[in-house]
Amino acid sequence: MKITKKDLFTIPNLMGYFRILMIPVFGWLYMDGQNLPAVVVLAVSEITDMLDGQVARRFHMVTDFGKMLDPVADKLTQAAVAVCLAVRYPLMWVLIGLMVIKEGYMALKGLQRIRAGKEVQGAKIYGKVCTVYLFVMMAVLVAFPQIPVRVVYALIFIALFLMTQTLVLYMFFFRQAK
After folding, report:
1. Nearest to residue 150, comparing CAs of 165, 121, 158?
2. Rounded distance, CA 58 to CA 6, Å?
3. Interacting residues of 158 by C-beta distance below 8 A, sequence separation 6+
4. What interhelical angle do 64-86 and 125-143 show, nearest 10?
5. Diameter of the chain by CA atoms?
6. For residue 116, with 0-12 CB atoms within 10 Å meaning exposed, 13-18 middle and 19 or more buried, which class applies?
7. pLDDT tens digits, residue range 3-21?
8. How many CB atoms lie within 10 A of CB 118?
9. pTM score over 0.85
10. pLDDT one-digit tens code per residue, 55-94
């Protein structure tokens, strides 16, 4: 895979960089107890995430670099929010551990495809569903810190189930994709 300067500075990739730069802003706001502004930062990040893919496809700006940058920005954002939430909800550490396993597996398989000269695959629908659920669930936990802990843990268990299911489905996908 060859990355050109032009690939680095497409509008969708600039949106990806912006999302990464929003992570410390979110962390500072959340840890400072400013939940509503923290949720606004997450919403801007999610809207930018949706727009970058649409812009890339519509204006023929899809790049292999962008296919890697977009999920990296997603996962860094998810991880940062999860770590912030883990301060309040210790069960989030289990989700973070599973996230590390799943994303490590995905990164390894993606690198294997690149080394083999194969196309980098975009996210599958089950990966997108899992990502959307995680963003929504974590935004709800940030926005409404007064939610009863048993409800929070139910939401986290749903996330654990979805992430486990997504990991298994990706394992089947990569096994068949050869």
Report:
1. 158
2. 17
3. 133, 137
4. 30
5. 50
6. exposed
7. 788 889 999 999 999 999 9
8. 12
9. yes
10. 999 999 998 888 889 888 988 999 999 999 999 999 999 9
Rounded Cα gap, residues 119 and 117, in angstroms = 7
CA distance 40 to 38: 5
Tell me the residue ranges of DSSP E strands in the chain.
Answer: none
Counting every residue written for the chain, the total comes to: 178
Q: For residues 130 and 13, what is the distance between their CA atoms, to the nearest angstrom?
A: 22
Look at residue 53 and give its three-state secondary structure. helix
Whether the per-residue pLDDT at 31 is higher than 90: the answer is: yes
Mean pLDDT of all residues in the chain? 92
* Structure-derived torsion over alpha carbons of residues 150, 129, 85, 93, reported in degrees to the nearest 10: 80
pLDDT category, 98, cuts 50, 70, 90? very high
